[in-house]
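Today's session is about reading a structure prediction critically. Students often jump straight to the picture, but the first step is always the sequence itself: look for stretches that repeat, for charged clusters, for runs of hydrophobic residues. Only then move on to the predicted structure, which in these notes is written as discrete structure tokens rather than atom positions. Here is the chain we will use throughout the hour.
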Amino acid sequence: MSQGYDFVIVGGGSAGCVMAARLTEDPSARVLLLEAGGKDSNPYIHMPVGFAKMTSGPLTWGLKTAPQRHACNREIPYAQARVIGGGSSINAEIFTRGNPADYDRWAQEEGATGWSFAEIQQYFLRSEGNTVLSGKWHGTDGPLSVSNIPDPMPITRAFVQSCQEIGMPYNPDFNGVKQAGAGCYQTTTRNNRRCSAAVGYLRPAMARDNLTVRTGVHVKRLTFKGLRATGVEIWTSSNGVETIIADQEVLVTSGAIGTPKLMMLSGVGPAAHLHDHSIPVLHDLPGVGENLTDHFGVDIVAELKGHDSLDKYNRPHWMVWAGLQYALFNSGPVTSNVVEGGAFWYTDPYQPIPDLQFHFLAGAGAEEGVPTVAKGASGITLNSYTVRPKSRGTVRLRSADSKDAPVVDPNFLADPADVTTSAEGVRISREIFQQPSLQKYIKSMVLPGDDVRTQADFENYARRYGRTSYHPTCTCKMGNDDMSVVDPSLRVHGLEGIRICDSSVMPSLVGSNTNAPTIMIAEKASDLVRGNR
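Below is the predicted structure for this chain, in token form.
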């Protein structure tokens, strides 16, 4: 069975939703969006607090890393979304864009011509629908709604004050003139509901006759005629194997894990690796699956004297109360994204931009693999990570079977500089918890214990407790060196009729959460495809 479209978009995550919405603004463009996961019908998706329920389970791929040689040989849970909207449907809704210097580095040092901050800022502004902030740093009319947390927990306000007590300035806008400081995050929410890319971009576009969206679709491989991409081969439980034709371009938006996997299954990637799995080599492209970069977050946890965090609502009667408050009045703890507060700061005050990011969670054990407090108690968590890690990993095929999960090896802490910076993040985190504003709430530290005192202790702690921050990037990087996969127009080197338009094309990781930068990439990609520069 064969059916033709102008554009076939492979992957219905943040980038895929943006591409589908923007390309179908041209009524003559026939667009198909394919997503392996299901529709975003789970109610937890749309409740801001639902993030805490979705770092494992059916809305993810259930991945674990390869044993991490530099992190106690642990296999770390590696949540990647499997639902329309992708990461924007299950993440903590934090809205940060990175530092302008990140994008200038792409353009000036890493071969991404046209991607300096001055050149891509328009796409951040075009995407953003900020309900509070405006001016040259913020858009107000974009599809991605951005709001303040309506009523941050008092414990979150205490965190921000504790940061000020160690010398960090208060910062009401991490996406403005200055990134450094502490404050409450803005979130991708609208009227106290999550505004994912599926909600903000895709849902309005689905009324267009020229857009087809198919969920529950397993893409087996890309199809080629010579070196030109012609479409995709898919499998569905209802129709079996189908071939779908793309008359103009195949646009791959399957993310930093899914995209290199699909490319390699299609014969595009490192030839030796493809030979190992008896996959015919269409195009030897050694950078596919290389350069995996992720934020390695390390948590500290404290138990509270009372029930001053969101953990209070784990009790059945309080949970019912919170649900009723949200249903009847659109208010209360369900409007919280859990990760309410944060900071950007320095290990060395003489650095030009921050090299650490902090996430304060008004609860304990909210995410898979994170330690919690004693049963019946309430706690808080502070996560820190090196924002521009030097360690690089890989995504590799487990087999030639497209249904097998790939081997994901972020190679966390391989570079000694990442170990040093991670340890300093833990030390600063504990210092924040020791300040008066938080001490009046804290009963005791759960982790790290009092025995963690020296630099070596902090480094060992980071190796033992660090984990992914859900920001995999760079596995099909943009540039012009031998390991680059796409050019600055996102066309795959050496191939025709195919672009990669997701977080995998980042030349290097930006110093922030990655959803807003991914949406920016897709916004610019849609203009590149349409010929608008």
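Discussion point for the tutorial: The chain has 14 helices and 25 strands.
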